[in-house]
Amino acid sequence: MTFASLIGSKYKFVALVSLLIFAGFTATSLTSYFVAHNSIAKQITESALPLTSDNIYSEIQRDLMQPIFISSLMAQDTFLREWVISGEMETDKITRYLAGIQEQYQTVTAFFVSNESANYYHSSGRLKAINPDDKQDAWYFRVAQMSSEYEINLDYDTAKPDRLVVFINYKVFDFDENFIGATGVGLALTKVKALIESYQNRFQRKVYFIDRAGKVTLRGEAYQDSTRLFTTPEYQALLSSDSITEQAAFSYSDDGNHVHVNARYIPEFDWYVVIEQQDNQLTSSLVTSLIFNLAVSLIITLVVLVVSYFLITTFQTKLEYMATVDKLSGAYNRHGSDILFKQCINFAKRKNTALSAILLDIDYFKKINDKHGHLVGDKAIKQVADVVKSQLRNSDALCRWGGEEFLIILPECDLDSARQLAEKIRAELTKTAFLKDDFLSASFGVGSHIDGETEAEWVNRLDLALYQAKHKGRNRVELANS
């Protein structure tokens, strides 16, 4: 594998590790996002929205308790019953009575309808005589026939026909339990509307009431689509049912936005209270958290990328050094020399320059090992390498070729210059003390690379020249045959 391919592999590895880390962070963040989103959506649909509708229903029932109690007191009031039994004389008395009830209990209306005279009495006076053919008076004839003592009815006020009021219609009996009329008070829907506004502001949910035909009957100020008809399949399933659905939870899409819905039937009004919450209201904080997590993941990935790059570069440099350099001598090993051989030969061909090499062998190295031991032998190898290095150029390369053999590669160096360098190294070795008065020597084979010659062929010629130097007495330089 070439140096360039090693570098390329390093970049690929770092990029792959970074990609895997970022992909892992992204997958974890997205998984957390969707799990949290589904959990919140489930909690909203199954808990929060039903709780809101239950609270609204409870508030409505609580607000109705007082007018029901007031109407009950009116139906049992001795004055009212005696006034009717006595012939409904002096209508100003009943007017003052109803006005007092309305003022004392802060109701929007107070009324009494006589079954005997069919007169409709109001806090402002006698309003009309009821007529069974008048649709506006149908409520009274329904009350007269009902079995229960009272009903809660949502209707338009007779005194102010444009005002929608919650009426408590209570049956009145004389002292002999004969039906003599209906009385009661009216509750304004402003309290319910204020309740809607409160829940919308507190929980950022859309709250409104619809009738069983799907028409919005009561809404807060923020609700704009007051004429909306609910045509989605989910609403149609709720409204078109033959039986009344007490409570329903579902979701639908509105202009690409997911909406969670809870609808509860209010029997007092024959309406549904509907609570809606849009999905984007739930996910805005989650999206912010997701973006933050991804940003942190990216930063961590970049840090890991930088750290990994420098660590791998450091370890790669150490590994390359260990793989190509002999630890004892500091010269290139055989693996390193193979790489250098190819590079130098290719360079010489490309530049058309001379390329020479020197193969040297330490003389009598086996005797040194046998006499002084391997540690001294290692010292001899180290000393020879140091002497050779001191004579080389920066462009030259020293390789440990075998046990006591060294190969010197000399780029841009002809045969004669290589021979001179070999003589210089030989002479320097003989002048350098080894063990007290002992000196080292070496035999040299020198040769230039011939065009078309393989590495093995070239080394073989150098080896033959070295053999000649040893055969002729050692401590000498011989040129390889060309």
Automatic annotation (TrEMBL):
Its main location: membrane. It comes from the Bacteria. Keywords: Cell membrane, Membrane, Transmembrane, Transmembrane helix. Its cofactor is Mg(2+). GO terms for molecular function: diguanylate cyclase activity. InterPro entries: dCache_1 (IPR033479), Diguanylate_Cyclase (IPR050469), GGDEF_dom (IPR000160), Nucleotide_cyclase (IPR029787), Rev_trsase/Diguanyl_cyclase (IPR043128). GO terms for cellular component: plasma membrane. It is a multi-pass membrane protein. The chain crosses the membrane at residues 290-312. Residues 353-482 form the GGDEF domain. It is found in: Cell membrane. GO terms for biological process: cell adhesion involved in single-species biofilm formation; negative regulation of bacterial-type flagellum-dependent cell motility. Its EC number is 2.7.7.65. This is diguanylate cyclase. It comes from Catenovulum maritimum. The lineage of its organism: Bacteria, Pseudomonadati, Pseudomonadota, Gammaproteobacteria, Alteromonadales.
